[in-house]
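We now fix the convention by which a protein and its fold are recorded. These numbers are not coordinates but entries in a learned vocabulary of local backbone shapes. A record is reproduced here so that you can trace the correspondence yourselves:
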Amino acid sequence: AIATGDDHYVQFSRTSGVVTSYAVMRDPSSGVDYAVEDARPVPAGATVTTASDTLTFDFTGALTTSGTSSVVRTDGANFYWNATVYHATGYTELAKVAQP
């Protein structure tokens, strides 16, 4: 985002409410959004949970999605990971927690 000067976002795709893939998208000033890379599927055996289908970042790297932070949770067989992204800076904190 910084190199291009354009906003970018992570787009989560769902099937029946379950996140099945995600893609990094570029939102150029021309107004025609496009994928930076091919969409990535959620690996078999993992579950991704997020409150929003889109996490938007401005060209400085700051998270612009509403709220003070956004959390993406990924559950695996033995652990889950919470990726918390904070506004203004885009700072991301990752916590790995043993499944109960």
Observations:
- The chain has a mean pLDDT of 90.
- The longest strand covers residues 18-27.
- The radius of gyration is 14 Å.
- The beta strands are 7-15, 18-27, 34-35, 40-41, 47-50, 54-57, 69-75, 79-86, 92-98.
